[in-house]
Amino acid sequence: MFHIVQYRPLRLITQNRLSCRCFKLMLSRPVAFAQIWKSWFSSHSLVGNKNIILMGAPGAGKTTIGRIVGQKLDCPVIDIDDDVLETTWNMSVAEKLQDVGNEQFIEEEGKALLKFSASGSVISLTGSNPMHTAGMQHMKKNGIVVYLDVPTTVIMSRLKSMKVDRVVGQSPGIPLKDILQFRKQFYRRWYDIRVLCAGNVAAEVVAEKVLDAVKRYQNTELETFISTRSARSERSMERDSHKYFSDVVTESLAPDGGLFVPERGLPKFTAEEWQSLLEATYIERAQVILERCIHPADIPASKLAEIIGTAYGENFTCSKIAPVRHLAGNQFLLELFHGPTASFKDFALQMVPHLFAYCIPRSCNYLVVVATSGDTGSAVLDGFSRLHDADKQRIAVINFFPEDGVSPVQKSQMICCQKENAWSVGVKSDFDFCQTAIKQIFTNSEYTGFLTVEYGTALAAANSINWARLLPQVVYHASAYLDLVHQGVIPFGSPVDVCIPTGNFGNILAALYAKKMGIPIRRCICASNENNVLTDFIRTGVFDLRGRKLIHTFSPAVDILKSSNLERYLHLIAKEDGQLVTQCYHQLEKQGHFQLQKDLLGKLQQDLVAGWCSEEDCLAAIHSVYSTTGYILDTHTAVAKVVADRLQDRTCPIIISSTAHYSKFAPAILRALRIAEINQNPLSQLHLLSSYSPLPPVHWGLLETLKKRGNGDHQVCAADMSMLMSHMETLIQNHFM
């Protein structure tokens, strides 16, 4: 927190400005001056003795906002341009730039910074200060760097109106837009906090946002996590055992069997903040959104940027990462299959391994345990295989999947992705058994304690029960809406519907979270296959597993009866009433069903509508879309398309999540396209599909996987929890001992 002391400070910008002589003393004898400065302001504290350092492009408003922040905090304000550079050089910055040229100017600026020292102040940097490494390293030692992130189009408009002629790098033949874009890499390198600054927001408002951001940076207690089954009366007693983002990434499941959620919910963006991201790339949008959701004490902005860049920089076949494609009428497809394993799971699982490796303590080994209905397994194995060797030595992965409940290509992927520290084990049961067994293992304190004592190994989960799995999915739902606005399909603020093939409820929950954060999503349409427990629940409020048996369908990733992430949504609409959630899930475990109260069902139906699709309708949709457009839907997307056709009211655009590439389900696709002779070899099936020159093309990553498969082998076990534990211990012994 800020500690404000009432006194009349020495101001450098507004009144009682320091004389040139005084500043020359500071620049020539920084150590002595720093001591005087420190003594003068010993009774005043901003963030200890640190400075608030405002950074941004020319025209970002650093000077104006710095003055306002200084006034609000009653502390000194220093403008590097006016109070340091011009005082040091005895000439204007524009004259200096003209005198020495671009490269030498940056060097001279840096030298001035290295001689500068202050504490407890608000400092406004020049637009080019961040381009000098040594100077910025010196400034960061005693400051919190706040990046005023203003859209490039707004900056260009401001500079034009200001008739600025002193932008470093500005010379004939070099567009100003290119200079500003080039500089962003330096701003991203140095900042601790980002503040989004839309073009029409008043400086006073931005100044308040700066103060709020600094307070957040200082106070980690603001962003703690609770269990979905934690009663309000218990939370005050749990304050000494707060869970933070870095904790929930590694612990995955709460000790009481619930799922972790942010105690104060997710951050909300203003309409202006969302609109400031219209011109941004997918990676830039991900960085901004995730910075708001992950406290910098858990993962600093610079490290988060590195992780996001690694996850999405080269591993996706499409430069747009998650492009939105017009299908027909008011329907758009959000293509989520351009990652290395060709499903939407890649968006989280190219990131989560790096988040996990950063957050775990170095003194402990970890076994990451996964249950998959098809796509998660290969995505987890691929993601963790991309870690640095040092991280692989302390992290092993075991993937349990229903042996007869995934497609041939999905099984091939999981087998091919195996490594010495990463195994795939087929289980003679369904996904629900695998997921339930893992939850029981995680909440078995005797067994997890045994693994820690005997093998020095802790367990972690990479399923969507892990909070870190959900956050990257929020990004693509927000980005899809922004793309429609950017393409001129709708103005910002106009609603859209989204339709999502749903099994474990994680993907659709991410869309609901995006809505809570300010994206104008009107309705989320939950699309099920013949395993339509969720459809019945959303329509009636009764979640009933009694007498239900899992049906194996053409869309195996949603062949799920018991949806884990539904618990998080119920916690949300129950206004964080963990006791109610506990009652529901205890009844589900004991009796196989529960029923929502009427008021909660009403809230649910304001957000969600639901429908389901038969196997015949799924294949018919694939054939129909291909016949009319040449585009091939995968089986899960076809389920969503059928449900969207039935439930949309055509008053707004509808974004259908295309969650996997059709190449993963070649036999069903070939059947839908009514190709009579189907070779049983998966590689031959993909070559046959490719001969039709489809849109999109056959996924190259899957082709490469199948080419190197050979006679890959994997282990198979019975549906017995003790057998799963045995496989886990064997992997631990082989890899860590």
From TrEMBL:
GO terms for molecular function: pyridoxal phosphate binding. The keyword Amino-acid biosynthesis applies. It comes from the Eukaryota. GO terms for biological process: amino acid biosynthetic process. Keywords: Amino-acid biosynthesis, Pyridoxal phosphate. Pathway: Amino-acid biosynthesis. GO terms for cellular component: cytoplasm. The keyword Protein transport does not apply. The modification N6-(pyridoxal phosphate)lysine is found at K345. Its cofactor is pyridoxal 5'-phosphate. Residues 240-312 form the Threonine synthase N-terminal domain. SUPFAM superfamilies: P-loop containing nucleoside triphosphate hydrolases, Tryptophan synthase beta subunit-like PLP-dependent enzymes. Belongs to the threonine synthase family. NCBIfam families: thrC (TIGR00260). This is THNS1 protein. It comes from Ceyx cyanopectus. The gene is Thnsl1.
